[in-house]
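[User]
If only I could read backbone structure tokens as easily as an amino acid sequence. I have put the entry right below:
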Amino acid sequence: MARFKPRLAARALILHQDRLLLVNAYPGARLGLWCAPGGGCDAGQSLPENLAREVHEETGLAIAVGPPVLVNEFHDPDSGFHQVDLFFRCTLLHGTLTPGWVDPEGVVTDRRFFSREELASGAHRFKPDSLPAAAWGKAAGLYDPLEVILK
């Protein structure tokens, strides 16, 4: 099994009308798993620049990037893949989730806002597990330890 250097990604915690924006970032929605929008960071761009670009690509929305609040790691022991996600509190500047929108990279298949109650109900799978605490909590600097990737 190959070991890869950890991939760095930035993710946005966007609350709008007390609802959290999540995306299904798996081609064909094969896992039914929801996560915060964002993605891999390109060298030469700051984390906030990367994040604003990724959120726009995945959702069509423009955001202001605030402070980091959560570090999450996950890996695939079979392939050696390892990713570190940095979650930032973000503010929606403009845009709406318009019907018919398509992610230019074809990764995000759906996007929507979820209430706390919807996430707490267990009816929707999401990662990381600490997502609601990071999004609605007041604390900063949460760390969600390394976990095995869902397949």
Observations:
- The mean pLDDT is 88.
- The chain has one domain: 7-148.
- The longest helix spans residues 47-59.
- The two ends are 17 Å apart (CA to CA).
